[in-house]
Amino acid sequence: MERILFLAHVEPDGSLVKAALEALASALALGEVTVGLVGGSVQGAADQIAGCGAMRFLAVEGEAFAQGRYATDAAAGEALCRAAGAELVIAPSTSRWARALPGVACRLGGRVDTHAASIATMNEVPAVTRWFYRQRMEGVLTRSQRPWIVLLEPGCVTAWTGTSGVANVERVAVDVSTTRTTVIGMQAPPADEQTIRPDAKLLFVAGAGWTKKQADGAVHAQEAEKLILGFLHAAKASLGGSKSLVDLSGEGEAVLKCMTHLNQVGQTGSTPRHPKGLSTCCHGEEPHVVGWRFIGERRAINLDANCGWARGKADVLYVSDAFAVMRELNRLLA
Ligand SMILES: Cc1cc2nc3c(=O)[nH]c(=O)nc-3n(C[C@H](O)[C@H](O)[C@H](O)COP(=O)(O)OP(=O)(O)OC[C@H]3O[C@@H](n4cnc5c(N)ncnc54)[C@H](O)[C@@H]3O)c2cc1C
Predict the structure, then answer these.
(1) 252 pLDDT band (50/70/90 cuts)?
(2) Distances 297 to 183, 206, 315, 322, 334 between C-alpha atoms, Å
């Protein structure tokens, strides 16, 4: 039986994010687990998962660990892996861990796998699945090296739910006196401009058609922006874009000021995971649609009955004017 460590960092409000609870569920399915927490104050998070049946709760706690920072996160991760004698380390693929844990694997002489979609026992050894070549092929891999750190992608398994309680947390000391990096603040767009929402039930994709001349021979970019933002606001959807549209934004011809290359879905963009997707004014060409691999139910609105979506790529295609449809949808949602 491998010694398994579930490793998570605690949010500023003292809780664990959904991705961490998903990683916990995966770790528990493999066997007996030690919990390792890193944060400014960890007791709340430990109590939140007190009923998970973990053997031990270890933590690196203190002001220096409240903030994501490579030096302190890597030191904390290393100390917890050593304290737990961990052979297998399961962690959520948050941006904070994705930065720090590969370095931890290097310090421990172990290995790390990122972007894992699952981990389960196969032929009596733990095996990871992950996608290769822009999500076209799924690989299954095992490793003989230990410790083996696995970063699990969010949204792939059901998050752990269970009773809270009072956890007995053992603190592990980490010396941070030599840390040279000082975090002086965070720069982030205002919350209402935050258009990428990985936990949203719906992915709303805008294509370049929103910027094209419409039936009256004119471009209606301002109305397009109003309709799209109005819908995102009302439906709490996540915003994706086709390459053509995000490239236009890069040229300063933004329909949507908040649309950047980070929104691009597709072969050279992202492959988000949402239960549903609605594509508007986007042709549905293959390099775009490969990014829809993990979208459960797909619908598209396009004026062209012969667009890519009509060729088996969408469950439902509305051959219609997206301006009119979104105007009506926003009216109904209001
Ligand atoms: C190597 C490579 C990698 C690529 N990677 C990506 C990628 O990652 N992501 C990506 O998106 N693309 C990618 N592309 C580009 C891709 O092939 C397409 O060029 C791009 O997706 C087209 O974007 P679009 O559908 O928004 O624009 P267009 O092809 O211009 O389509 C606009 C659509 O809007 C419709 N339309 C216009 N007005 C309305 C209206 N009022 N109501 C309804 N519909 C309307 C039109 O009928 C048309 O179908 C890649 C290409 C290559 C070669």
Answers:
(1) low
(2) 42, 17, 7, 19, 24
Between CA 46 and CA 193 the distance in angstroms is 33
CB of residue 241 inside a 6 A radius of ligand 1? no
Domains 4-171 and 191-333 fall in the same CATH topology: yes
From CA 91, how far away is CA 93, in angstroms rounded? 6
Question: Which tokens is 8 given?
Answer: 């998570």
Is any atom of ligand 1 closer than 6 Å to the C-beta of 302? Answer: yes
Fold (topology level) of 191-333 = Rossmann fold (3.40.50)
Q: What is the DSSP letter of 57?
A: E
The CB of 207 under 6 Å from ligand 1? The reply is yes
CATH 3.40.50.800 fits 4-171, yes or no: no
- State pLDDT tens for residues 254-300: 678 778 899 999 999 999 999 999 999 999 999 999 999 999 999 99
Strand boundaries in the chain, DSSP class E: 4-9, 33-39, 56-61, 88-92, 111-116, 118-122, 125-132, 137-141, 148-152, 169-171, 202-206, 238-241, 274-280, 295-302, 316-319
Q: Is the CB of 287 under 6 A from ligand 1?
A: yes
User: What are the structural domain ranges in the chain?
Assistant: 4-171, 191-333
DSSP 233-251: HHHTPEEEE-HHHHHHHHT
CA-nearest residue for atom 53, ligand 1, is 287
Going through 174-260 in order, the beta strands assigned E by DSSP cover: 202-206, 238-241
Residue type, 138: E
- Compute how many other C-beta atoms are within 10 angstroms of the C-beta atom of residue 187: 4
Cβ 64 vs Cβ 39: under 8 Å: no
